[in-house]
Design a protein that fits this description.
alpha/beta; TIM Barrel; 8-stranded parallel β-barrel; about 40% helix; globular; Glyco_hydro_1_AS; glycosidase
Length: about 475
């Protein structure tokens, strides 16, 4: 690594309400789409919540938040990314008045973060559209969700705007292309969803994000508001120009979301995609004005890269949400996600050069099966594989900083074990903190520090100085 991390760099961890809060029926909360997704995005939803849905209990952060935040503080977190559950504030999503019990819960979370000097980073909507909005309106296919979301965001800004500096509008907004239920609250099965309805839903989310960006500046002028993108750099499988073009087009499908957030209008290549798909978006003059409200920064998740080939015989990568083909030069995690630390440096340079907006890595981590052991009378996990993964990626972050990239911070995904979004398992663990619960819902929910806990604590204390090249 050729540089140090800047003073004030925001080290921390990231979570999502639906994956770790639990308490799905406490505090006046309504149901969200996640409450009927017991197998994650790998299976169709159920009609009602079922006992095998681990997200209903999560890891019980709702009742253990003070204990967990104290552990984050022990590691030295400068920031903590969490989401607010929309259905905890508006149980149906289209309610006229908010649920005070839900608002009070997040007041208590913010109290604990302030007590420990940890900066909150809040995601307004993280894959948890209220179930009523999915059933009644088919999620973001309906324009009325723009107003419901803006009403929800206004309540958050008015309540917490003086306490929260960093906000994200939608989690991994580009994932709606591949996971329309999870990312768009769209109950119509993906194989039955028309391109017209899908792209109209995308437009509605982009308009809503822009409106709320403007609203934040009006209601909480000291706040910074950003978009959040699932980053998955795409390489051509061969030097064949047809493969290079295929890779570019795959990248553009994701770039479009950042381009609109950063530039305020639809790029030409995206308009061509719509034309060739026979899609005519309903765009009002007001929509075009709204889209001009561009973000302050760009945040993103990064787990792996993929390849693309124009050769139809090339096998697609089955484990990647965003598709693509496997890279023969890279190893993969236990869940088939290819490990590519250099890809993170590439993304950072690419996004910085493209948008010239400060960046924020808000998800990065290794999902793995951990074994709880007793070492010198203390229960822990010897997760050297996670330390190695994070060290390699953070070393590349340091290289990107030396390249001149403007980076606000880095929050590892699932800093405490939580339920996987893709598979709804707890055995796919990311955390520095082991939570005693298994895929069958059994366990004490006790928390144990892994070996990586002390490693990350040292990284933060030295502002990256303890990383090894």
């Amino acid at each position: 690594m050729t540089t140090t991390f800047p003073e004030g760099f925001l080290w921390g961890g990231a979570t999502a309400a639906n994956q770790f809060e639990g308490a799905y029926d406490q505090g006046g909360k309504g149901l969200s789409i996640q409450d009927i997704m017991p197998k994650g995005i790998m299976a169709p939803p159920s009609e009602e919540p079922t006992e095998d849905n681990l997200k209903l209990t999560g890891i019980d952060f709702y009742n253990r938040y003070a204990e967990d935040i104290a552990l984050f503080a022990e590691m030295g977190f400068k920031t903590f990314r969490f989401s607010i559950a929309w259905s905890r504030i508006f149980p149906n999503g289209d309610d006229a008045t908010p649920n005070e019990e839900g608002l009070a819960f997040y007041d208590r979370v913010l109290d604990e973060l302030e007590k420990h000097g940890i900066e909150p980073l809040v995601t307004i909507s993280h894959y948890e559209t209220p179930l009523h909005l999915a059933r009644e309106y088919d999620g973001w296919t309906d324009r009325r969700l723009i107003d419901f979301y803006e009403h929800y965001a206004r309540v958050l800004f008015e309540r917490y705007g003086q306490r929260v500096k960093y906000w994200l509008t939608f989690n991994e907004i580009n994932a709606i292309i591949h996971a329309p239920l999870m990312a768009g609250g769209i109950l119509t099965p993906k194989e039955e969803l028309s391109k017209q309805d899908l792209y109209q839903a995308i437009h509605h989310e982009l308009v809503a994000s822009a409106r709320v960006t403007r609203l934040a500046r009006e209601v909480a002028p000291g706040a910074q508001i950003g978009c959040m993108i699932l980053a998955m750099p795409t390489y051509p499988l061969t030097p064949n120009p047809e493969d290079v073009l295929k890779a570019l087009q795959a990248e553009q499908a994701n770039y479009a979301f950042g381009d609109v957030h950063c530039r305020g209008y639809y790029p030409g290549y995206f308009l061509r995609t719509l034309r060739e798909a026979g899609v005519e978006l309903e765009i009002t003059d007001q929509d075009r004005e709204d889209l001009k409200n561009t973000v302050d920064f760009v945040s993103f998740s990064y787990y792996s890269s993929v390849c693309e080939s124009a050769d139809p015989s090339q096998e697609a990568g089955e484990s990647n949400i965003m598709g693509g083909t496997k890279n023969p030069t890279l190893k993969a995690s236990e869940w088939g996600w290819q490990i590519d630390p250099v890809g993170l440096r590439i993304v950072l340079n690419d996004y910085w050069d493209r948008w010239q907006k400060p960046l924020f890595i808000v998800e990065n981590g290794l999902g793995a099966k951990d074994e709880l052991l007793e070492v010198d009378g203390v229960k822990t996990v010897q997760d050297d594989y996670r330390i190695d993964y994070l060290n390699q990626h953070l070393t590349q972050v340091g290289e990107a900083l030396a390249d001149g990239v403007d980076l606000l911070g880095y929050t590892t995904w699932g800093c405490i074990d939580l339920v996987s979004a893709s598979t709804a398992q707890l055995s796919k663990r990311y955390g520095f903190i082991y939570v005693d619960r298994n895929d069958y819902g059994q366990g004490s929910l006790e928390r144990y520090r892994k070996k990586s806990f002390d490693w990350y604590k040292e990284v933060i204390a030295t502002n990256g100085g303890s990383l090894t090249a």
